[in-house]
Amino acid sequence: MAAVGALTLSIVAPAGSAGASPLREQDDTVTVAGVEIACRLTFPAGTPQGAVLLLPGSLFSDVDGNYPTMNLKPHLYADLAAQLGERGYAVLRMAKIGPGTGSRTLDPQAAARHAQFATRADVAAAGLALLRKSAPAHPLIVAGHSEGALVASMLASGADAQAIDGVVMLSGPATRIFRLMRDQLVAMSPSGTGADMTTYDQTIAAIRAGEPLPAAAGANPQTAMLAAMPAFSVDYLRSTDRVDPVAELARVRQPVLIIQGGEDASVPPAHADSLYQGRGKLPTELARFPGLTHFYKVAPPGISPMQSMALDTVSEPAVAERIASWARRFSM
């Protein structure tokens, strides 16, 4: 059961769009499995020519796509909402459940359901219902960023499939979560050295089997974070790892647009290729942005992956333009 409730209204100017018509924003919430989740709706100046549900990725992000517990402020979701709003689309963006994001646990017992990744699709469905009620516009597009792309696939192939006209994969991974994490660790190892992944592999095997972690996990930098996680978080990762992103996207029958930044150190460009190939003959387009990061920023030369995450410049509006131009085809 999901519930919604409007909170506030505000008028904002589109990001990086001096002189553009102001947008209207409305704060709202959905309640799913004992947790109240913050949402923010962006409305264009005129009648919406379409609507976009924007689903967040991993980690604890607020509605703007900032990460308060990490003091990172890429504000990608706020940028996309403003840029799409300027192009005539209503947008609903959602916070993740977690500290500092605006979420609130109302029923701890019911909230235990959120340890299962499938509940993210329930949260997305509640957001979809709120968007359809608040902005009943066509076409209706679901766009998921990073891990949220996997949620978008699940939503679009589920009970709400008939309501969804298209799916946008924003830097979505093609491998299961523990494989993605492994590849990230290997990529961060010093150049020219072979990373010893023995402890990581043993730790992941134990998590997948539901067994105690090896004694070495807590002292190894590759696995210390996993070893320190509460059981709730480990359960969530385990359930996430059971989902194959390529197989999930192959179940989506709506047209799909895959967006990929060429300087993405979190989800490298090869993932987009795998997702595209996995679609076979289903209607799919792949849009590459060679100079952009995971949050669609232009990164200075030589910047490290962590430094690129900390960039707080306006996200490149060409991404929103590509989404808007693709979505316009469904309104003809």
Automatic annotation (TrEMBL):
Residues 76-294 form the Serine aminopeptidase S33 domain. Residues 1-20 form the signal peptide. It comes from Duganella violaceipulchra. PANTHER family: ESTERASE ESTD (PTHR43265). This is Lysophospholipase. The keyword Transmembrane does not apply. One of its GO terms (molecular function) is carboxylic ester hydrolase activity. Keywords: Signal. It holds the Pfam family Hydrolase_4. It comes from the Bacteria.
